[in-house]
Amino acid sequence: MIVFKCYMKILRQNVTLVIIYLGIFFSVALVMQMAAGKSEDSLYANTSIDIGVVKEDQGVLAQGFVDYLNTIHNVIPMKNNPEVLQENLFYRNVEYIVQIPADFYEACIQGNQPLKVTKVPGSYSSYYVDQQISSYISTIQTYVAAGFSQEEAVQAVKTEVHKPVTKISSDSASSDLVPYTYYFRYIPYLFLGALCYTMGYILMAFKKGDIQKRMEASAISVRHQSLEGLLAMGVIGAFLWLLGILGVVLMYGNTFWDSELRGYYIANTLLMLVVSLSLSYLIGMFIPNSNILSGVANIVSLSMCFLCGVFVPMDVMDKSVLKVAQFLPVYWYEQVNEILSRHHSLTPELLGKVRIDMGIEVLFAATFVCLILVVSRYRKEG
After folding, report:
1. What is the DSSP code string of 269-324?
2. What is the pTM of this model?
3. Are 335 and 325 in contact (CB under 8 A)?
4. With CB atoms counted within 10 Å of each terminal CB, which end of the chain scores lower, N or C?
5. Average pLDDT for the chain
6. Number of CB atoms found within 10 A of residue 256's CB
7. What radius of gyration do the chain's Cα atoms show?
8. b/e map 198-228, b = 16+ CB within 10 Å
9. Tens of pLDDT along 176-226?
10. For the chain, where do the domains classified as CATH 3.40.1710.10 start and end?
């Protein structure tokens, strides 16, 4: 087991790199998961902002309108002084200012004139407030047109029951991503980054000086040396894969373990590991020194992750970029991950898609292995 021990010795010498990649992976996965959870909730939550209100009408409708805004936002009464209003807006004491004229009922309810508003340029919350104001005035106009008095119209709006927003999505999919979505999304970066460096340093060590010639002249057959090398690669890959699976179990516990799709997640990551391992070995065969290895490892891992939906979600990427990404193995891993993360169970159609995508990952791994054999044979004959 001399060759196997050499592999392990070189790995121990470079274990710091593996630890660094593990630290980056777990940190990024946690941060992105927390950020995604907050942004997902904010998409469907009412946003409360500071609104300045200049009320020159003392009627029932004007007061009812202010009360309505106050149930959603933080209303700050203001006087009709342009300089003061602009100053408050400039210093962001308020994000939105609405001015209610003295003839609010005649001008805005009966005359359908728009209210004078001033808002922070480019504020998305301001557009939301615009919709609320428009909705309130339209509702009041409807009640008044139906014969309600001003007092009755205001009271009717107050007693309206608004049902909470229900999130739906197509294809019987869940609109909420499972908690460990980002964890599995970032696993290719861990595998590619760590293995490119590890395999690169191991293969460089065996190419130094006349080590290769000594190995060929040794009493241990080439076949036996190859088997020990494959065993070492399998142990290294299995160790990294087990760390990845152990991480998701420790971080998400029963949430992951009770999932009906956990087997598909595990199988998908295992295939990604085989692809990364074979690709890393193929790349390592052409690396002459550590300086080139650092550049190539970063280019391969980062470019694949950016193009294939690891760092940037596929649904916001350009279609032409995704067409190019289909020629890379990480794309098919992420395709499976997207399907699994948006469904609690798989229909026969989705199961077929998952199997096809996993099959393509197997083909990529087989292609890399064939290329390794071709290059090895070519070098021996040369």
Report:
1. HHHHHHHHHHHHHHHHTT--SHHHHHHHHHHHHHHHHHHTTSSS-GGGS-HHHHHH
2. 0.64
3. no
4. C
5. 83
6. 21
7. 31
8. bbbbbbbebeeeeeeeeeeeeeeeeeebeeb
9. 577 888 889 989 988 998 888 888 888 887 777 676 666 666 666 666 766
10. 50-158
